[in-house]
Specification:
about 950 residues; 9-stranded mixed sheet; about 50% helix; alpha+beta; 31 helices; single chain
Length: about 950
């Protein structure tokens, strides 16, 4: 029996991809870029958070970050047994036992770690030749740190070692030797337990190789002596230094009154940890400080063993900064993610529109929704999945670093692949769930919002109100509250719903009088724009979200910059401050003229500051004492400086000179000088003249204005007067203003001041401002916001192009038909431009308005202080932050949307005119 010939069926996926390779390539490229961004974002966040952890530990003061274990030897033991406990071999063996006993994930950096014996009490040395500033004998600490030879260089003498007679030998650092007059061969005696002094021979002078490193800085007294004061009514000062004993001499400390203890000081190593290990590290520190791990450590150290560190406080500060920055970054993440999702949905909508006749024909001929959906899913997945995988593979080597996880990147790329694969089949299945008549209208003439759509919009409205309210009340402090982070997205979504419902009405109203105008172009363009496709909500939503994200990101970056500028001005008072090594010391003559002669200096304001001024009180002697600095200024320049910096602006006429200043008016104590005071000083002085007795003169002051801050001392109470009214006039600092943008050649200014006078330093605002940006988390978060703005702009361009491409065939056919009716090429271009212009203006104006409203609504709840001032002093941290709309972030993207729309419409009109109406209108064409 002859076999039936096999039926040849063309594979659906291969056939469709070969039919439209350009569309498949464009779709794959969009998915690749989106998947790359989705995979790169979590890796970038992991990288800068991990770098922030390393930076927080590495830059912390070693005395705070060190892991120190100590134990004492019971005094009940025999002296020989106690000395045996202090032997170097015994200490090293104990260290080797302690290292594996540290609770995971704690690790020690042995290169900067040390162990040894140290005295816990300072002991006086009676030698008369030692330095005695106020006649008090200096005191010494004894320490025998391991690894001294590796961390120092010998300057004079020899290294200490075990003395043949059993005595103790020690070395001193160069600073200790210079301050206390020590040299090789010096013998210092310290009190002993038996009442007899114990000699210690200084055999050498060493210089630390890295005095700021963790080995030396854990205990700064190791390399630098300091002055201490006696507890007396009139304290006297004396030196305190450290003698660096040879490890073999450590047992000799038992015979002194220094109460020696054994110690093991480990420098923490966190380079193997990531940001996700912070909780484990904090738990390990808690366990070692007072938990199960401490019990294990005491099994090695003995019952008197103790574990101390401030590393947990460093981690707490890092965690607070990380949480604050993550909550702000989450807002940008939700924004750009929403824009990307909408653009992917628009891509599916474009494909569905272009293939509507094909799918409608299949549905009318009995194709099932399941069959259509599965075929479309296979078609889109064949492009989306490889493109997303390629985006992931590109993101792995190009982004991320230490601490970057693989799983979040894979999940991000997978989410993009899923959305890109499902949007076309789901949309097609939804639109063709019932067979549709050919030629049904797609515009707003017949479209009416359904009850389901109204309920969905009201639901999103409730969510948006709740998110905005929560963000304004609680702020962005909780990075895990996704509803709060999505507040800008929800505001943009509600705005899109409102604009889609409202914008056809004014266009239809405008079309009525346009009917009376000559020509049909104006009326036709307004009429078509007023009943544009009902699917126009997605392009509008994408543009609104992109513009809102760009505006919010721009406001964040602008707010961060403003806060840093204000904090820097708060610390320096101007673009530069020229001041002596002691703030109250008068500047040498001629310094002001030298500064004025430096290129780029626009103005110099001399300031005289006298600290510790005792203020009188209007309440008399019943009031408690209060002091405040007296500030003598040059009113004209100082008023301009206050207005420029925003710290207590005032009219210069308030401090008009009374003409009673100078040495000739020393005896005129009844003169009254106008003054500007801080609130507390003004409350104390009252509104009547009060007598001031200062080094700058004796006079009366009357408060004529109250200001919360002033440039000379922005964070303190103050009393500002005209410097010309002081009898003893001497500027203690110069507040220097640079060019129009605060530009100042700091190097030239510092060189000129240094050449003119010694003991004068220059503090630059730009250097102070740069010091606030010291954490990788700050720079990483700012880079993400800049990337979010750039990605938002890119997706906005795609949204415009996709929107115009979706309606391009319809407009092309319309223009071709109108050409057959006598419409010229110029009129055709005007028609397409005028038709696209209202939607572009709506998106641009609506995006700018929604961006401004979002910033205004969310400003009270967004605190950028951690992102702006991670290393600022506490006074500057109290500034707070306030988002403000950035004109460039609002205007430039919105203008770009209008320009791009007009350009695309013009190109389309030129292309149609070039092809001619005959090619566009073919016989039997259903368009």
């Amino acid at each position: 029996m002859p076999r039936k010939p096999a039926r040849t069926v063309a594979p659906w996926v291969r056939t469709r991809l070969r039919t439209a390779p350009g569309a498949a390539l464009a779709h794959g490229l969009l998915v690749l870029v989106t998947a790359f961004l989705a995979a790169a974002l979590p890796r970038a966040v992991d990288t800068y958070e991990t770098a922030g952890l390393w930076h927080a530990v590495d830059t912390a003061e070693p005395r705070h970050s060190a892991l120190t274990l100590t134990t004492t030897v019971p005094s009940s033991l025999a002296p020989e047994a106690r000395q045996a406990e202090f032997a170097p071999e015994k200490l090293r063996a104990t260290r080797d036992e302690l290292l594996p006993a540290l609770p995971a994930p704690l690790r020690a950096d042995l290169a900067d770690s040390a162990y040894g014996v140290r005295t816990t009490k300072r002991m006086p040395a009676p030698e008369p030749w030692l330095a005695r500033p106020d006649g008090v004998a200096p005191e010494f600490l004894l320490d025998s740190p391991s690894g001294l030879a590796e961390h120092s260089g010998l300057v004079a003498g020899r290294a200490p070692r075990a003395a043949a007679d059993g005595g103790m030998e020690a070395a001193v650092t160069a600073k200790t030797a210079a301050a206390l007059r020590l040299k090789p061969g010096s013998v210092v005696h310290v009190p002993g337990v038996d009442g007899a002094p114990k000699p210690i021979t200084v055999t050498g002078v060493v210089e630390p190789r890295e005095p700021d490193g963790r080995y030396w800085s854990t205990d700064p007294a190791l390399h630098t002596p300091f002055l201490a004061a006696t507890p007396e009514a009139e304290p006297r000062h004396y030196w305190v230094g450290t003698l660096l004993l040879a490890p073999e001499s450590a047992p000799g400390t038992v015979a002194t009154l220094g109460e020696p203890e054994k110690y093991w000081r480990f420098a923490p190593d966190v380079r193997h940890l990531t940001a996700q290990d912070t909780e484990r590290l904090t738990a390990a520190l808690g366990s070692a400080g007072d938990g199960p791990a401490l019990v294990k450590l005491r099994d090695i150290l003995g019952d008197g063993g103790a574990f101390t560190t401030d590393l947990d406080g460093i981690l707490a500060g890092y965690t607070g900064t990380r949480t604050a920055i993550a909550s702000v970054v989450a807002v940008a993440t939700f924004g750009i993610g929403a824009v990307a999702a909408v653009v992917l949905a628009m891509t599916g909508g474009l494909f569905t529109t272009r293939r509507h006749p094909e799918l409608a024909l299949l549905r009318s001929r009995g194709a099932s929704l399941t069959g259509i959906g599965l075929r479309l899913l296979g078609e889109t997945a064949a492009v989306a999945v490889p493109a997303a995988a390629l985006g992931l593979l590109l993101a792995l080597p190009l982004t991320g670093g230490g601490g970057a996880r693989l799983l979040p990147a894979c999940l991000g790329a997978a989410a993009v692949a899923v959305v890109a694969s499902l949007v076309l089949p789901l949309r097609a299945v939804f639109l063709h769930r019932r067979p549709r008549l050919h030629g049904a209208r797609e515009d707003l003439v017949t479209a009416r919002p359904s009850a389901r759509r109204t309920i969905a919009e009201l639901t999103f409205l409730v969510l948006a109100v709740g998110a905005v309210t929560a963000l304004r009340r609680r702020g962005t402090g909780d990075s895990g509250d996704h509803l709060v982070s999505a507040a800008p997205v929800l505001v943009g979504l509600i705005a899109a719903f409102v604009l889609v419902r409202l914008y056809p009405l004014p266009l239809r109203w405008a079309a009525r009088p346009a009917r009376r105008l000559r020509g049909a172009v104006g009326f036709l363009s307004l009429a078509r724009a007023g009943r544009s496709a009902a699917s126009g909500a997605l392009p509008l939503l994408a543009l609104l979200l992109a513009l809102t994200t760009a505006a919010f990101g721009g406001s964040v970056l602008t707010g961060v910059s403003d806060v840093r500028d204000r904090a820097a001005y708060r610390e320096t008072g101007a673009d530069a401050r020229v001041v002596g090594d002691l703030a109250s010391t008068a500047l040498p003559p001629g310094v002001a003229e030298t500064v004025r002669g430096v290129a780029g200096v626009r103005e110099v304001s001399p300031v005289q500051v006298e600290f510790g001024l005792e203020l009188p009180s209007r309440r008399g002697t019943a009031d408690q004492g209060m002091g405040a600095p007296l500030i003598g200024v040059e009113p004209a320049s100082y008023a301009r400086l206050a207005a420029r910096t925003g710290f207590g602006a005032f009219p210069a006429g308030l401090l008009k000179s009374t003409g009673t200043g100078g040495p000739g008016h020393v005896g005129n104590t009844s003169r009254v000088i106008p003054a500007i005071a801080s609130p507390r000083v003004a409350e104390r002085l009252g509104d009547r003249p009060m007598e001031i007795n200062a080094a700058a003169g004796r006079f009366h002051v009357k408060v004529v204005a109250v200001r919360a801050a002033t440039p000379a001392l922005p964070d303190k109470d103050f009393l500002v007067v005209n410097g010309d009214d002081l009898t003893n006039r001497a500027a203690t600092s110069l507040l220097v203003t640079g060019g129009p943008d605060g530009v100042l050649d700091g190097r030239a200014l510092r060189a000129a001041v240094t050449a003119k006078a010694r003991g004068v330093r220059v503090v630059l605002r730009e250097e102070t401002r740069a010091g606030y940006v010291d954490s990788p988390m700050q720079t990483g978060a700012e880079r993400i916001y800049r990337a979010a703005i750039g990605a938002g702009a890119g997706f906005a361009v795609l949204a415009v192009l996709l929107s115009l491409l979706q309606s391009a065939p319809e407009r092309t056919t319309l223009l071709a038909r109108l050409r057959t009716m006598g419409v010229t090429r110029r009129q055709g271009r005007r028609l397409l431009a005028l038709e696209a212009l209202p939607q572009a203006l709506l998106a641009a104006g609506g995006g700018a308005l929604v961006g401004w409203a979002t910033i205004a609504l969310l400003s009270p709840g967004v605190d950028l202080i951690r992102l702006a001032l991670a290393a600022a002093p506490d006074e500057a941290m109290a500034l707070g932050t306030a988002l403000r709309a950035d004109v460039w972030s609002l205007g430039v993207p919105a203008a770009g949307v209008v320009v791009l729309t007009g350009a695309v419409a013009g190109v389309q009109a030129w292309w149609v005119a070039r092809r001619g109406p005959v090619k566009e209108l073919r016989a039997g064409d259903a368009r």
